[in-house]
Here is the input.
Amino acid sequence: MNAITPTPGGQVGRSIPRLEATSKVTGRVEYVHNLRLPGMLSVKLVRSTVAHGRIKSIDVEEALKVPGVHRIVTSEDVLKVIPVPYYGPAFHDQPILAIGKVHFVGEPVAAVLASDPHVAEQAARLVVVDYEELPAVFDEVEALKSKTVVHEQLKPAGTFPDLKHLHGVRDTNLALDFQLVHGDPAKAFAEADHVFEHTFRTQQVLHVPLEPYVSVAETDGNTMTIHTASQSPSFVRLEIARLLGWVENRVRVRVPFLGGGFGGKLYIKLEALVAALSLITMRPVKLALTMEEQFYTLTKHASTFRIKSAVSKDGRVTGRECEVWWNGGAYADIGPRITQKSGFTAPGPYDIENVKIDSYALYTNLPPAGALRGFGIPQLVWAYESHTDLIARELKIDPVAFRRKNLLRDGREQATGTVVRDMGADACLERAAELMNWDAPFDRGSGTIKRGRAIAVGFKASISPTTSVAVVNVAADGSCTLFCGTVDMGQGSDTAMAQLVAEVLNIPAETVRVVHSDTDVTPYDMATLGSRSTFHMGHAVRLAAEDARAKLAALATEVGVAPGSNVPIRELFVRKYKMQAGTIVGTGSYIPDYTSPHQGTGQSANVTPFWMVGATGIELEVDTETGHVKITKMINVADVGRAINPKIVESQLSGAAIMQLGFTTTEKMEFEGGQCTNASFADYKIPGFADLPPTMTNVVVDANQHNGPFGAKGVGESGTFGVSPAYANAIEDAVGVRITTLPITPEKVYRAMCAARNEPLED
Amino acid sequence: MIPFEMLEPKSLRDATALLDADDPTIRPLGGGTALMLMMKAGVFQPSRLVSLRSVEPRYSTITVNSDGSFNIGALAPLASLEHSADIHKHLPVITRTMQVLSNVRVRNVATIGGCLAHGDPHMDLPPVLISLGAKVRVIGPDSERTIPVADLLTGYYETQLAKNELIAELIIPPQNGKRSVYLKCTTRAAHDWPALGVAVSVAGNRDGLSEAHVVISAATERAQRVEQASALLVGPPANDKLFKDAGEAAASAVELIGDSQGSVPYKRQLVRVFVERALRQAIDGGITQ
Ligand SMILES: Cc1cc2nc3c(=O)[nH]c(=O)nc-3n(C[C@H](O)[C@H](O)[C@H](O)COP(=O)(O)OP(=O)(O)OC[C@H]3O[C@@H](n4cnc5c(N)ncnc54)[C@H](O)[C@@H]3O)c2cc1C
Here is the structure.
């Protein structure tokens, strides 16, 4: 591990405005959506109308008659340029265009190309695909046992050791069964004073970046350049090179700014398709999805979580059994990683000696699911923090006191056996309780308005082990440029990374220029995901800057300048090269230590380099006549280590909490026979300003991550953790009904209240 | 996009002549906010659009008459109603409704004519206008008639208008001190279309109402008066019990549509509650027109 010595630069901890703010609000930053290349063709996709079926025929005759259509491509054409056109980070299961079969409504079957996107759109409507429908499976719990299988055979990518045993396995929808056993859960349940068991479910939702998916490819047959709105340019290069059978340096991936990502724009989305189409047509090809097409691209896992606890008379949780079914949809994407890496946190931030976890990644005939701000954690916290509150209520213990009693504290073993350090669950809980005035009397409302409140705490491990590499250039005039592959999709990473460089080199952060991902010049980075960048790339950037600083010091010595003198950098270069010339190149590479969990028991001495914690407190009012719920106060607290840029941290927390509020209250993809029936933003509602709590406090606890860059760690997801269970718990606190499925609509609350007074509302 | 013809006549009468009573692919274009969405979604492919933007300027004006009645040109953008001092003075319920109707970008271009001709039962203004007793003046190539807004709307996206008729103006009668309230009930995001709209307009006080209009929209296939509730309200002391009964009467009278905004039984409960609340607000805090 790298020892950290804080430097006195004073750049870390400054709330400087975003470096790109001015160019963004004046419309000057680059987005792939605005890119037009000479001779470029636009693509419109023909998508499957059935959830599971064999393709009998694809009739393009009428479509080809539309004036201006350049070409219509199906998998037959793709196979000629890419013989094995299957991709995916965990499984090579997803074809560039459907081959023989379709697996969900919305799956791309054919691509229509034209210079004018409207022409392509019109022609795409005229392509007739004939299917032989097959039985389909949609529910994750059913999928585990179902005779209907989505894929005949499993095709793990080979990158992850714990998926190797699934190679070639047939007739199953199970894409990973992660298991963990800690202590002796059977004994704990046998000896328990109380046993509680509940099941909670979450719905399928989506990312909704304001910039939908978009990619452009151009090729000369020898090299390929892909301009794409991607969170993982290095992965795109690797995967495209693999698909084409090329070496990496023949593929160049460029990523400017993103208009949001949230985990959707990871791995391969449209890149393989535009790459194939550009090779087939030898023209630049652009595919820009509409807002509505996002519903058929990537979603967040629906889930079912059965959770069972053994509790002693005095309110200690002594054992916990967790069974989680993840609805991965038709393609695995990163689902199996979620199943494992988040799966092992399923018992929650509690000190429980005996734990058993079964976490299943399942294929179904729904649009694929992947990472979405929290990587599975919000689904888990929803269940375990609802469950925790139910137990406390049943035992008549104050919910905060109950948590306090069972909380996982530094120095104790988490379910994986890893001893936790710098976790801050206790600090977050206490701060939230304080901000909620938990010990003060609480107004319970009157008339048709009843009031309630609650707190929930969740935690997450960092996805490990992953690598980041950075380069810091110092030009001959002393100006400084950072080359790093972290994608700024609105989270402010450019600014934070510049602050790290500036801290080390003792210069103002505003003067550091950050070069965005271009795999021809920016070095490898695993991806911008899972709140990993501040920690991993942060270290790489720090190391690169320190390397540059050391080289500057060596240069100073070489030209006879005493250490610590204030001779300007440009003077050092002039003394050496006799003119303004030369460059100093600092490099940094970082991968944390990690021990892979034991297969079967899930045990590991070092499962993560750091833990993230988020707590949410909510006060709300329920209208007992309609079930409408209004949040009157919301508190979000997180342990982010030391905040590199406190203002950015605060907006990350509020943004994450608002996003999760949408998943809690309104957002849900509705399906009928696998067809999403609300695939538009007229019917799928995300929160607007009028839905926000009137007061919202977003704070961090005083903390230092011992092994983080300048004490920092990730923040992008922590604000999501506690929101859903805090909301449901506060509703129960207000009106005594328990909602166990998301989203929590007014009708659901009203129905639960009717049922509770034995006057159920008919369906 | 399949090419189509776009015409911009200089008079409203000329516009009617460019329409065709028998051709559904020819339509007038007001602000285009509804029409463009339908075209984008592929549910409407025009052969010709007749834009009304260049017709006589008088069709965009708002006129208040000495008796407090209004004549509002069909091309008046919703934002002009929102910001009109006369409307704010005489018909404050409209000013208030504008604050919950869509967003500023839509209100800036959407026209009052388009808003009434579209026939979407979720629109916020039609129930309000019905409760105020408003009418529209409609012209055809060689005809002219006046229709109460309550009768204009005949069904789900259906109106009485012939395909070559145009709404020329909206006429709102004097309100003479009646008090009106519009409640928009959403069940998903706050800025959503309503799951239920309730507009009430009453004359009288707690001792008794001399006139009452209860209109329901969004949960029904069209915005409609609920006569059962209105009738029950006139005469007896206007107490909370009466309002509750009116809510109950409305809930059992209207035919509701269940959808992703709520099931029929739930919407029935919403009707019950919101009619009662609207009446209470109208009589207590309601704004005098
Ligand atoms: C994003 C969005 C959100 C919205 N939210 C709301 C909301 O919350 N509440 C609400 O009430 N409304 C809402 N609306 C709807 C909006 O009010 C209507 O789109 C608008 O009123 C239509 O007016 P327009 O002038 O744009 O009509 P257009 O789109 O031009 O036309 C609509 C229809 O009326 C016909 N037409 C237009 N003018 C005339 C005329 N003079 N005579 C006869 N026929 C005519 C057209 O042929 C067409 O069939 C929303 C719209 C959008 C786009």
